Amino acid sequence: MRDWNALSDEAFRLAARDFIEAHCPAHLRRGEEHVRWAQSKDWYHAMAAHGWLAPGWPVEHGGMALKPAKHLIYLEEWARAGISRVMEQGVLNVGPVLLAHGTPDQIAHYLPRILSGEDLWCQGFSEPGAGSDLAGLRTEARIEGDTFVINGHKIWTSGAVDANHIFVLARTDKTVKKQAGISFILVDMNQPGVTVKPIVTVNGDAEFAEVFLDNVRAPVANLVGGLNNGWRVAQSLLGFERVWAGSPHMGRQAMDRMVRVARLAGRDRDPAIVDRIAQLQLDLADNSEMYERLAQEIRAGHSFGFEVSTLKIVATETYARITELTLEIAGEQGGLAGEAPFADGPLVLGKADLLRDYLTARAPMIYGGTVQIHRNILAKRVLGLPA
């Protein structure tokens, strides 16, 4: 297996570009956020076959074991090429969670099936009455012999329409405080009692879905991290998500676009605009340093705490401010798709537009815990303020 970390950053960047050019189909390079499995499975299999699917997994489990700087380049090149997201819950979340909390049998069984695309995962966390207050979930699992019987209703489940497995947070003890009575269970969706109802968004996509679980069964062997210990497992998974959300790669991409817009609009000579761009570039540099430092700690096996909340706030708010200033600089051209004509030339945008970038940048401030929740975490755990 090749040691990607031995390459220089530039050599690795070129290798990533060469791989994308050789194997990623054109229809997945349009910057579309969501595509179905039928459209993306060939690309998924190509990444797996050539060892590019799991950049953060250990080499012995089929990953690339990239160090943070290389991993960031990986993300940047995928974003630069406008590559649509594929079924990623297995690679991004299930794999790392099992490596941290799973049994040897779970690791040996599920990780190869994630890489092969045989198991496609979605996340069964949020519920109609338990989104930001996730610990208030009502889905229940009772034990009958060597089986969990699960009943509940999940919502805003990304990828559920194509998934065949779901990892579920369910209440297994109602006599203790709400965080203490939750378990993390792996569930096969190909069974009676699982109903998936797509949620069609305003742009016509069915990226999200409701998932109804009616007397659904899962072996007790599919319990991850121990009975009633699901909150700790979920927090580690959300930690992985928040570190991902804290990556500066989207902010860097947005910054490159903002600089181009400022030049084409003739605003790159406006001292007030130049000063605001410079401040955002400094904020983005801070974000990059925080991300690399925390990622190094995680790779070294160290636990993470409030630093993840700080990273989430800095990264998502910086990204949002960049898109906001871009829209301000663009003026009336900000809502145009395709080509936006500016005084010094056109900006080719494809199917997207700068307004869509602005709106898209608001989502990371919500998923994985809102920035308001993360400020409350810092206030309580770091500053010692009352809850």
UniProtKB/TrEMBL annotation:
It holds the Pfam family Acyl-CoA_dh_M. Its cofactor is FAD. Keywords: FAD, Flavoprotein, Oxidoreductase. The keyword Flavoprotein applies. One of its GO terms (cellular component) is plasma membrane. InterPro entries: Acyl-CoA_Oxase/DH_mid-dom, Acyl-CoA_Oxase/DH_mid-dom_sf, AcylCo_DH-like_C, AcylCo_DH/oxidase_C, AcylCoA_DH/ox_N, AcylCoA_DH/ox_N_sf, AcylCoA_DH/oxidase_NM_dom_sf, Mycobact_Acyl-CoA_DH. The keyword Oxidoreductase applies. One of its GO terms (molecular function) is oxidoreductase activity, acting on the CH-CH group of donors. Residues 122-216 form the Acyl-CoA oxidase/dehydrogenase middle domain. Residues 10-118 form the Acyl-CoA dehydrogenase/oxidase N-terminal domain. It comes from the Bacteria. Residues 228-383 form the Acyl-CoA dehydrogenase/oxidase C-terminal domain. Belongs to the acyl-CoA dehydrogenase family. This is Acyl-CoA dehydrogenase.
